[in-house]
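Input (structure):
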């Protein structure tokens, strides 16, 4: 499983940002990947200015795909001018256990509340 964090330029309006998120998830699906979860974190202040911009729209995507897809995917992200930065992490066994634990916690808290 992979984790993709990318930052979209906030100069774009909400529809354009939503379109970019849909295009990224669509690219993964069309290439045979499987989207596990997409978390849109919204506009946040950058740790340092990028091309004189202080904010970016953060999106976190968890997906499964073949290893040879990642190189093509990174190239597609790099040539998209609206995506200011991106990072793809491949999950090892320890990261998978942590991810699964995080997924269970809201469900367990909800079950305890009812």
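Output (sequence):
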């Amino acid at each position: 499983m992979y984790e993709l964090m990318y930052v979209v330029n906030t100069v774009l309006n909400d529809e354009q940002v939503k379109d970019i998120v849909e295009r990224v998830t669509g690219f993964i699906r069309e290439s045979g990947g499987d989207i596990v979860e997409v978390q849109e974190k919204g506009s946040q202040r950058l740790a340092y200015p990028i091309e004189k911009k202080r904010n970016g729209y953060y999106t976190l995507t968890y997906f499964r795909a073949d290893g040879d897809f990642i190189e093509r995917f990174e190239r597609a992200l790099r040539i998209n001018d609206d995506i200011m930065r991106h990072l793809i992490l491949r999950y090892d066994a320890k990261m998978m256990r942590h991810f699964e634990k995080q997924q269970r916690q809201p469900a367990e808290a909800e079950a305890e509340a009812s």
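Notes: The chain has a mean pLDDT of 92. The first strand starts at residue 2 and ends at 9.
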